[in-house]
Amino acid sequence: MEKNLKIVYEDDWLIVVDKPCGMLTMSTGKAGEVTAYSMLTDYAREGDGRRQRSGKQRTQSRVFIVHRLDRDTSGLLVFAKDEETKLALQENWSEAVLSRKYEAILEGRIEDEEGWIETWLYENPKSMLVHCYEIGRNENPEKPPRKGWAYASSHCRTTGLLTIDNQTYTKVEFELETGRRNQIRVHSQWIGHPIAGDRKYGAKTNPFGRLALHAKTLEFIHPWTGKTLRFTSPLPRNLKQHDSCGKH
User: Fold this and answer.
1) Distance CA 50, CA 131 (A)
2) Burial class of residue 42 in the structure, from the number of CB atoms within 10 Å of its CB (0-12 exposed, 13-18 middle, 19+ buried)
3) DSSP per residue, 85-102
């Protein structure tokens, strides 16, 4: 497809794509925006037209957004071909998704480490910034202490170091337990190591010319066949960098 949106899987109910950095999942309302949703809608309509010309039965030429990635995050996204499939996935998302991993490159050196980041997140409706708040010892993740706060949990594991222009960066694999807006970006800022290129959340450098965050693995149970589907997306070329220090 155009603009490097790649279809990695398609069946009668689902389309899984690999979205490039810089592409919106869906429109912000501005005229002429090219999004993953608009491109897949055109793709579905073109397929519908081909089926009509060949005399095959017409099918519904629509796609439905199941989940989203930020404009500047690349990687794997799922779209549904009908509303029933969309709802079946969304309403059982936490049970259906078996693994959802991201690769990020964070500013600074983090020693060999693995663990959980758990906080409250709050999105300011005016600034659209997401803020982190510490979870109190006796607070229940299912009962936020303030309106608008949401529990967010990320598992992180350091996988290596990079040195670029005498600056040290740490490669980190994130796996989401919850899927809040900007969760990995805000959690990275929370631990004092913003994602490279993420000036919105405190980054001071941009060695890759983009946000250094990629949705690399998605594994989920198909809502109708019951089969486990697993997809991986290689790190984009513009996130691969020279002068690697390798593992810790």
Assistant:
1) 48
2) middle
3) HHHHHHTTHHHHEEEEEE
- Asked if residue 1 lies in contact with residue 39, where contact means CB atoms within 8 angstroms, the answer is yes
Burial 92-113 (b: 16+ CB within 10 A, else e): eeeebbeebbbbbbbbeebeee
Q: At a CB cut-off of 8 Å and minimum separation 6, what does 186 contact?
A: 119, 121, 130, 131, 132, 152, 201
Structural domains for the chain: 1-91 (3.30.2350.10), 94-248 (3.30.2350.10)
Indicate the SS3 state at residue 114.
strand
Per-residue pLDDT of 173-201, as tens digits, reads: 999 988 899 999 999 999 999 999 999 99
State the average pLDDT over residues 106-127: 93
Cα 52 to its chain centre, rounded Å, is 35
The 3-state DSSP class for residue 195 equals strand
For 71, 79, 222, 237, the CA distances from 35, given in Å and listed in that order, are: 9, 13, 25, 21
pLDDT tens track for 63-93: 999 999 999 999 999 999 999 999 999 999 9
- First-to-last alpha carbon distance for the chain, in angstroms, is 39
